[in-house]
Amino acid sequence: MKPVAVVSFLVTLIAVTFAKDSRTFAVLRFNNEPGKFSTEGRMDPIVSPGAPAGHSHGVMGGHNFGLTVQGDQLLESNCTNAMIKNDKSNYWVPDLWFQSPRNSTFKKVPLFYMQVYYFFDATNDVIKPFPPGLKMVIGDSSKRTPPATGAIQLDPSRGAIQPVQWVCPANGDPNRYPVDSDGTRAGLQDPTDRGAGAGFPVINCDIAGAPLRQDIHFPSCYNPAAGIDDHKNNMVFPTPNGNKFDCPKGWTHLPHLFYEVYYDTTPFANEWTRDGQTQPYVLSNGDRTGYSSHGDMISGWDTITLQAIIDGCDAGNDGMDKCPRLIGGINTSDRCKIDSAVPNPRDEWLTALPGNNPLSGWGVGGV
Ligand SMILES: *[C@@H]1O[C@H](CO)[C@@H](O)[C@H](O)[C@H]1NC(C)=O
Ligand SMILES: *[C@@H]1O[C@H](CO)[C@@H](O)[C@H](O)[C@H]1NC(C)=O
Ligand SMILES: CC(=O)N[C@H]1CO[C@H](CO)[C@@H](O)[C@@H]1O
């Protein structure tokens, strides 16, 4: 073959091997003890390394989680509650609290369950595994003002990114938000999905097995020049290129993570009266709106295992644990509890949120 023919042959081969014309995906599931994350407390090794964090989080994954996580130390974890044994990553979100309308005290809403979608989206790029130790944060813990609409918006060419949403499965399909809401006193309906919106809904989410849910999308383009620790600058969302989404030149296309976190709101259904305008839930940072929901991830993946999943598994909702020829195998019984470096108070009802965070949003705290 002439050199030109060799090159075009290679280009064709690469295109056949890696170009993705449509999304494939696999859902990572956890072995969580009912009601519980692997650990909880005021810990955030990305935003507040080495010190107690401002608010409490619920954390899943590898045992080497702590106030500080450096380099690829998660890979040395001796267990994980992820069902994939070779995933020692940590995944965390703010805790959710119920505020009693009777006496204003707070009770933690138990976790129902959490799962992480690994989307391998249509792209002209090669999708690579997370670099070990990669730190990512998405969402804005300080946000109390409404976003532009109630919908998710992940396309940078169409304006501000809206990576987070609340989903409220409900019998009879009632309005989840006041119909005239502008987002300053209550949340905003998603115009494309009646079950979802920005901010906490004003109804009880009463579908059995599917209570109130926090949804969080992560960006999938990584900038090696910024590096694994620079969580403020190392990730962006891919931009459209025809029907596909590609990363900037020189960046690495990673899996698109999507957290679904179901909180067990069922026990609180009779603790509040629905008035169609207000709701009793608050995030651990004091946010009454839900606009500030956010998620964090530090990768503890064995890269060979994850690359094989990216290239060869489209298990979808059946779960990543059903991927064929999974390297390292699955763990169905390991709950892998992690000791909390800054545990929350043990009392059932608290007079203040852990860290004494004042309430804010929707007319409270000057916002
Ligand atoms: C506050 O109200 C909750 C019910 O909403 C109740 O279970 C709890 O005991 C109350 N606490 C105090 C100190 O009255
Ligand atoms: C390994 O994990 C268990 C919890 O599952 C813990 O008790 C033990 O101390 C850990 N060992 C090391 C060396 O970290
Ligand atoms: C099914 C399975 O592999 N279970 C194992 C999970 O990991 C723990 C140790 O971390 C083992 O004791 C279990 O046998």
UniProtKB/TrEMBL annotation:
Signal peptide location: 1-19
Domain DUF1996: 44-301
Annotated keywords: Signal
InterPro entries: DUF1996
Pfam families: DUF1996
Protein name as it appears in the record: DUF1996 domain-containing protein
